[in-house]
């Protein structure tokens, strides 16, 4: 549990002249479950999108599994990564998106088998066996032949989780996986994520506004504000005795939000 599997080393991310990540540093160890919390616009999703190679960086180095993600080793130091390097590195990570992002014209089963067959070159029968196991894991064995529009949002998101797992990533990223769901469907998705977290050796990095859930499943919480980590610690430390005024303010407003629902 000691090697950092993810390392952000002075990472800078800008959109035009807006600096979203400002020399960001953090490590995540293999097998750790870490949640990023923080106000809207603080750069939480950007961290995940950089790891999924959906957004580039303007400064610093991101390491995944001990190798630079956005760079390669050249003869005299690091050089920008080639597409082949990015493609290879991306295979270590899977992501569950806020809006599920399922293919609407494909059955549930095909949504899960498509990438393993096309990207990993798995045989169709093997991909189907893997998908069926994962559908059982997320409690959707009876829905394999349905299309996404025939499922509830919670069921679609559980397919999204199975689809990410089908690529056998070492690291699973969750970008606000329940925020597009009706409140009564949130629990079933959190249960699946909680079960995964208990039963699998996956490294998990989550962005969520579900504070109670973050508290239950995380080994560590990172509190972000304006592209920097203001405070980090175990859920017990951060939620019961936050050290920084900014953290207390944020947690207070989140509590108000929860009580207002
Ligand atoms: N493609 C983009 N082009 C321009 N600005 C962007 C882009 N993506 C994100 N941003 C800006 O970067 C900042 C950080 O966005 P990000 O989505 O990472 O925040 P967040 O902390 O995840 O917020 P939320 O909780 O609302 O999802 C925001 O100000 C956002 O408007």
From TrEMBL:
PANTHER family assigned to the protein according to its UniProt record, in alphabetical order: AMINO ACID IMPORT ATP-BINDING PROTEIN, GLUTAMATE_ASPARTATE IMPORT ATP-BINDING PROTEIN GLTL
Domain of life: Bacteria
Keyword annotations of the record: Amino-acid transport, ATP-binding, Cell membrane, Membrane, Nucleotide-binding, Transport
Location, primary (coarse class): membrane
Protein name: Ectoine/hydroxyectoine ABC transporter ATP-binding protein EhuA
Gene3D superfamilies, sorted: P-loop containing nucleotide triphosphate hydrolases
Location of the protein in the cell: Cell membrane
GO MF entries: ABC-type amino acid transporter activity; ATP binding; ATP hydrolysis activity
Pfam family, one: ABC_tran
Organism classification: Bacteria, Pseudomonadati, Pseudomonadota, Alphaproteobacteria, Rhodobacterales
UniProt-listed NCBIfam families: ectoine_ehuA (TIGR03005)
Topological type in the membrane: Peripheral membrane protein
Encoding gene, per UniProt annotation: ehuA
Organism of provenance: Paracoccus aestuariivivens
Domain ABC transporter: 6-251
GO cellular component assignments: plasma membrane
InterPro entries (UniProt xref): AAA+_ATPase, ABC_ATPase_HisP-typ, ABC_transporter-like_ATP-bd, ABC_transporter-like_CS, Ectoine_EhuA, MetN_ABC_transporter-like, P-loop_NTPase
Family: Belongs to the ABC transporter superfamily.
């Amino acid at each position: 549990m000691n090697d950092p599997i993810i390392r952000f080393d002075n990472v800078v991310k800008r959109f035009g002249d807006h600096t979203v990540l400002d020399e960001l540093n953090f490590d995540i160890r293999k097998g750790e479950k870490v949640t990023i919390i923080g106000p809207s616009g603080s750069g939480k999703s950007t961290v995940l999108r950089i790891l999924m190679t959906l957004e580039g960086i303007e400064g610093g180095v991101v390491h995944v599994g001990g190798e630079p993600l956005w760079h390669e080793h050249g003869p005299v130091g690091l050089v920008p990564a080639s597409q082949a390097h990015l493609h290879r590195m991306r295979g270590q990570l899977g992501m569950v998106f806020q809006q599920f992002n399922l293919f609407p014209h494909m059955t549930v089963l095909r949504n899960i088998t498509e990438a393993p067959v096309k990207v990993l070159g798995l045989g169709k029968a093997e991909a189907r066996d893997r998908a069926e196991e994962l559908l059982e894991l997320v409690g959707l064995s009876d829905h394999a032949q349905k299309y996404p529009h025939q499922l509830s949002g919670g069921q679609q998101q559980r397919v999204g989780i199975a689809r990410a797992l089908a690529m056998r990533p070492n690291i699973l990223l969750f970008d606000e996986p329940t925020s597009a769901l009706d409140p009564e469907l949130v629990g079933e998705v959190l249960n699946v994520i909680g079960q995964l977290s208990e039963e699998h050796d996956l490294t998990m990095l989550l962005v969520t506004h579900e504070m109670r859930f973050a508290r239950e499943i995380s080994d560590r919480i990172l509190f972000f504000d304006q592209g920097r980590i203001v405070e980090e610690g175990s859920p017990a430390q951060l939620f019961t005795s936050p050290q920084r005024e900014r953290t207390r303010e944020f947690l207070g407003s989140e509590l108000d939000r929860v009580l207002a629902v």
